[in-house]
Amino acid sequence: MTNEFLFIIVFLLLIGVKEIVWTQIGRIKRKDSEIIVLNKKLSIWGLLYLLLLIVWIVLATKNVLKVYNLLKYDYVDSIFQMFNIQYMEKLIEGFYKNNDYVWYFQTYNYTSNFTSGLFWMAFSLSMSMTFLYRGSVGTIICEEGITDSGNFYKWEKFKGYYCCGPYKKTVREGTYYKFIFNRPTFFSKDNTLVLNVNSEYKEAVEKTVSINVQKTEEQ
User: Fold this and answer.
1) Both 66 and 173 in a single domain?
2) Other beta carbons less than 10 A from residue 92's beta carbon
3) How far apart are CA 206 and CA 134, in angstroms?
4) What one-character-per-residue DSSP string does 121-182 give?
5) Residue pair 5/115 in contact by the 8 Å Cβ criterion
6) Quick check: 155 and 145 in contact, CB under 8 A?
7) Residues 67 and 114 reside in one and the same domain
């Protein structure tokens, strides 16, 4: 396994760690300005990446055991040698020189699948950590703006908002309202941020939001 590949793996993992640390630093900075802490979210994207991580681990485990059972009698002394890519590459070179093409292709495919599997496991773990943590932060109304799923939006970024509802919850009892903020971006003037607010927080959220963002007609 090359140093460049290891660097990519570490880099992917650091992306997830950086997102968590960066979000936490932002929360600490705005802690004293928090007004209302709303519902936390279970990130669908986080769960999907977690599921993808599990799939890659299962596939990698099957791949390791399959090739280990083929090599354990003559070429490897321990299953831990299967993770020594340099040793496996020496085996590949030896099989090729000895014209043992069946063994050559088995070990070559193993190392190729193993390294690509490591990449996708690192990527899935990084994304899963990021989205699950952001979801756990939830929605926070601050004096300077809104934190939603780890992303902070200043009040001046919103060009208007409107509230609609109430709606009945599908899982739990009670109702909620939708606060829909118009947040134009470079790519879309109709971009919106939607917050689902439980009925008990509706008046408090409306009071804070109306001071900072102009209320518009429901669209």
Assistant:
1) no
2) 19
3) 24
4) HHHHHHHHHHHHHHHHH-EEEESSEEEETTEEEEGGG--EEEEEEEEE-SSSSSEEEEEEEE
5) yes
6) yes
7) yes
Q: Is residue 142 one of the residues assigned to a domain?
A: no
Could you say which DSSP state residue 215 is in?
B
Encoded tokens for 171? 């899982």
Among 75, 108, 137, where does a domain finish?
Answer: 137
**C-alpha 75: how far from its chain's center?**
39
36-85 confidence digits (pLDDT tens): 888 777 778 889 999 999 999 999 899 889 888 888 888 888 888 888 88
Q: Write down the residue that tokens 């934190």 correspond to.
A: 147
* Residue 162, in any domain of the structure: yes
pLDDT tens-digit readout, 5-36: 667 777 777 877 877 887 778 777 777 788 88
- Contacts of 183-190 with C-beta under 8 Å, sequence gap 24+, read 183/153, 183/157, 183/158, 183/159, 184/159
How far is it, in rounded angstroms, from Cα 43 to Cα 139? 13
Which amino acid makes up residue 208? T
Question: Which pTM value belongs to this model?
Answer: 0.70
